[in-house]
Structures
1.
Amino acid sequence: MPPAVLVKHLQVSYGRQPVLRDLSIEVPEGAFFIIIGPNSSGKTTLLRAMAGAVKPQQGQVEIWGEPVGHFSKKALARLVAVVPQRVVTDIPFSVQEVVLMGRSPHVGWMGLEQPRDLELAMEAMTFTNVAHLARRPLPQLSGGELQRVIIARAICQQPRLLLLDEPTAALDPAHQVNIMDLMAQLQQERGLTVVMVSHDLNLAAMYGEQLLLLKEGKTVQSGRPADVLTYELLEQAYGCPVLVDTNPLGQVPRITLVPKRFLGPPF
Amino acid sequence: MSWSGLPLARRLLWVAILGGVLLAISLALGMSLGSTPASWRQNLAALLDRGGPEDILTTIIWRIRWPRALLAGLVGATLSLGGLVFQALLRNPLADPYILGVSGGSAVGAILGLLAGLAPFPGVALLAFLGSMCTLLLVLVITSGEPGGRKGSLLLAGVMVNAFCSAVIIFLVSITQDARLHNILYWLMGDLSMSAPNQTTFLIYFLLPCFLVVLCLARPLNLLLMGEETALYLGLNVALTSRILLVVTSLMVSLAVCQSGLVGFVGLVVPHLFRLILGPDHRLLIPACLLGGGSFLILCDLVSRVLPSQGEMPVGVITAMVGAPLFVLLLMRSR
């Protein structure tokens, strides 16, 4: 069985600015894989490359053994769903209509949905707890509701691989845990492969089975949370001092940021 | 049950029925009202009895008013659909074939074709199509690469292209000896009275396939509304779909402009009206814009014909008087 995602010597630049430099990683099927790293380290670009949205200068991304470029857009969308960082929210489609858009790679051009599509949408909305909002127009949703709607749309696509770009970024702690629990549930109960970009190191430590720490488009370290989230590696990647101990909940690292005034006198 | 709770197929049926009725009423009105007074009884008789060539009213209705109402309907449907597609493709509520300068480009092409003595088809139509594509590409090039400020710069680019095209039109029409071209108002404000009836039937064969293509792309248009990246993730070949839509829309707009001149703001008024009523789903909006846009221009043409005026008022005067205030309103609301 080939891995869900295989990235081979991937090189991507925007103009002259190299974003990913000779990056190689492997995401096994059914993994909960979290990509961390400082701003502009290439996390989002890596995710977009996995989704076939950027053309690499060199190297390639394979999804279950097949290069991403070989898929038609429709075939790829039946296999890979993406929850992007920013979504359009000013078009007054109803929640149900937005979730039903997830059926696009499965229905014909003119695109009248069948009863089966409506069932799948309802199931996805129930799973992410937005079924009661089905008629609500998109612009009236809160941040947490919106994120759950977009995730429901991705589920409705019936993908085998789910890519998420900072899904918890603008949410309060309760909603963050809620979204992460949903992802863990999808991964464990339905065998979905989940790849997520995150800025929250503690969430990454608690939920990620495998982490990838990126810096300037290159791998700093990849592996289990305990191997990646070490004081030395984090300081090297982020350039700021952190405190790493063990999370009281279990055998995962806990990361504490250190304000300047705790660092002692400057001289 | 509320409107949004109805299944899509049911809503589509309602749009088709109500739109069809609206179009039928507009056509009936457009054919029975005019400068020749007649009672509704006489009108009805003449409408139903196509045969009698000796009856003056029958002749007026079927030889003069019918081709004109048909043309108005086709042009109205085309411009409304064009506006709808541009608004979704450019994700800009103010886009419209006229405002973007696409209509102006077609008119310049058409006039050049007429000056060169080309046949109405394919010569003039082809030049009109080239003109519309050139202006569209120009506007897109001017506004590319600035995702943030696109709304404003798109409008500015359109206004400039439009002003330039208008100047070229007036210039060309002024220097020519050709009597056919002397009606400047025909080109600048739009006029449905100059077109030859046989060209109208000809127009149908080209416009209907264009309508069908856009109708088939209703769902992709919905996806494009959610942003190009999201549309891609939902399995849409964004580049190909956008190109097809741009070419087909420019083609049908330029064909309409060849027959009617620059009728402005139809593509702005009609889609926005239906968006308010039906919501953003293109699977409903496309049929609604076709039927409703046709009706709208038939009625505008009727108003321009029956209002007392010296000679005849161009239909573009009526559409601009409705459309321009709406445009300002939308502009103020989008800030």
Note: The CA atoms of residues 160 and 192 of chain A lie 5 Å apart.
2.
Amino acid sequence: MTLLIQVLSSPSLVNFFTEQQWRALVVQGKKANMLGSLYALFLDASIDVPYKVRWHLSGEFLRVSAQKQQALFELFKLNVALEPQVLGGFAALKGVAYILHDTRSSQGRNFSDIDIIVSQCQVKNIEFRLKAFGWFRSEIDDYDDKYYREWMHEIPPLTHSKRFTTLDVHHNILPRTNKQHFDASLFEFVEVEVEHVGKVKTLSKKDMLIHCAVHLFTESEFHNGLRDLYDLHSMMTQFQSESETFLSELADRAIELGLGNYLFYAVRYTQLVFCTEVPTEIVSKLEPYKPKFLNVWDFAFLNVFKPDVKACRTWRTPIAKFLTYWRGHLIRMPLRLLVPHLLRKSWMQLRDKFTKDPIDGEQLP
Amino acid sequence: MHNIVCGPFCFSIETSINSVVKAIGSLYTEQARESGEFVDFAIELTSPKSIRRIIKPQVNFSVDEHNPFKPLPLDHAYPMLEWGMNWCIATSAHQFLIVHAASIEKNGKVIMMPADSGSGKSTLTAFLVYNGWRLFSDELSLCSLDDGYMQPLARPINLKNQSIDIIKECLPSAIFSATAFDTHKGTVALLKAPDDSVKRMHETSPLSAIVFPKYIAGSETVLQECHSIAAFEMIIKQSFNYHILGDSAFRLVCKYLQQTPCYQLTYSKFDEANLALSELV
């Protein structure tokens, strides 16, 4: 088991850490985008972090706290831009949703975009309206644009022209080409009152957790895999401690939505990675949703849910990455669409390699 | 493997690129440490082993197994290391308000000189630190959020274009890196930090003046007091992490502006600029 995972499961382990172990933890935490979460965890457990290490964690915590404040400001702006009476409004998803529900996992959590979901029939109008408020489509070629619009569950990302924040506008939960594609309006939404922002719509706690599972287990790349799995672990633990029947209701709800298989994965890998406490009756409730070839997926997922650093890589890592990459793509679209798509993408990459100059130091300070 | 200590930070640098090994060997002699120090940033500079290396060899910068930049031509390897080190500090050391400014000290008093790139602050700093001033930094000024004291970095000074020859002429015995041509900042060479500044790199000092320098060819030396509101805007504009620190940075800058006089310095002669600044400390 890696150092980062051990510490996330039992933070007090660091009380006996040597400098080398601290250093390894910082490198793993940085690579997994979880330094801020680590700091929040230590604050919560009143653990004293040596100064040499602390500023690495507290600095990242400050950065993500500023990001969080920015996200709330954007929600305030979006409340102005998208009136519910006219366009059906919007609901916040993922990172921002965790903030709205003030989950423990949102403390110090790093996130890059603001994700919202809007009603599918209003997407065009909403995009037009967002443009008037400064949200523009980032540079994207026609093929990618078509890929998003025809097959995906979101439109190409929008960037604000002055504040440079990125907005992901979804109109569904799963790509249209996914077999389990279903109407997002089946999800249950709640309204949360936020200071200085007003009322914001987001998913109910159960559906938010299910969405988190669906999102994670349809991914094909896992740079933030460990962070997202930790979200699941942390939310399951927190919500169950608030209400004893939470996990049982969660399982029923996932099954009702036809998404039992995603919750099966969520429960299985949070248990195997973070030793999450899940009552056995819930595990058996989800047993029928077990995938075929579970051994293969155990191998694959347990090897990708790790910080992507040299110290944690083995010969298994590339095989696991290969398996999860193809798994992600194949659930996103059937082979008859996927093969032409990937061929086209690799050709485009090759073309760019020769036509665009790769030397570009402009981002250097 | 080299461990290099720059003020409060320790970088470990691993590379087999000759130009970098040579530059570190000559510019960081006093700052090299045996292992044992707690490493803050583990940097690797490597030359990618692709076909490209035959026609156009490149260099890759990674810190803690993360590649923040696209590769650069191999000739720019050492400047890339310096820029990369700046990036490491500017993006993570939020225990400081980090200002794009040169800082120098005399009589225990620090002058911070925030300025846009190309305003000649590094050139002036290079001259001053070899003429009686102690070098804190030529590019990243670190203001502690705890006590408001300035924290030295004592790293090599980044000289560009014409200023390389000017400074080489003023300081014939100083040590310079090899010159790198055609970088995104033009021609670049680095000047070794004075030994005394390096020796005292852990010695913090209070800020006692803020000066906005401006080189204008042929001009008289004029030191003019400047309004604190204008200074406030300038400091924020030149700060790397004001937007992250928010409230605490605002309070620190306010404290500085209430206690510290601000000036605009127009100059064309180093000696005269030196005299004018010396009167402030």
Note: Chain B has a mean pLDDT of 94.
